[in-house]
Amino acid sequence: MQIVLYQPEIPPNTGNIARLCAATKVRLNLIEPLGFKLEDRYLKRAGLDYWPLVDLTVWPSLEAWRQRNDGVRLIPASARGGSPAHRFAFRQDDALLFGRETSGLPDSVYASTPYRIRLPFAPGVRREDGGLCVRSLNLSTAAGIVLYLALEHCGLLDAWSADLA
């Protein structure tokens, strides 16, 4: 399992996701351009002292990532549709793709893969005109939820829980 962040913009979100990846031993891939420098103090602060535990690769483009990860299913997450993440049949070698905080993923990315997942929202978060009061979740929150759903689906959480008993 790995996480791919497409052109992330907000350092604390990426730092929080880096800490998530350290805790789960999941590779973190960052697709350039980044909205910050990797030396950013807010990025480092959010990741705390976990950075040495992060398996991090920075890629110049999503195409470069795809060329080196041929055959890996790229599973984009979207606030605008897709299969409910809790019902998706994840595999241990999947790559979970998350878009920019301000604009998500380009349509061309969705068109390039048959997969798309979303996190369902509770009933009643729509306005009378049909628009959403809550349009999306914070990127690091969404990444954490999706990753743990995927890990649970693959049976990895039970093995980890047994180690703590």
List keywords for this structure.
165 residues; alpha/beta; 5-stranded parallel sheet; two-stranded parallel sheet; 6 helices; 7 strands
How does this structure look, described?
With 165 residues, this protein is α/β, with parallel strands linked by helices. It has a single domain (2-164), classed as SPOUT methyltransferase, trefoil knot domain (Alpha/beta knot, 3-Layer(aba) Sandwich), CATH 3.40.1280. Helices cover 35% and strands 15% of the residues. It is built from six helices and seven strands; from the N terminus they run E-H-E-H-E-H-E-E-E-H-E-H-H. It is globular. The model has no long low-confidence stretch (mean pLDDT 89).
Set out the fold topology.
Elements: E1 2-6, H1 11-24, E2 27-31, H2 41-47, E3 56-59, H3 62-68, E4 74-76, E5 83-84, E6 95-98, H4 107-111, E7 117-118, H5 139-153, H6 156-164
Helix pairs in contact: 1-2, 1-5
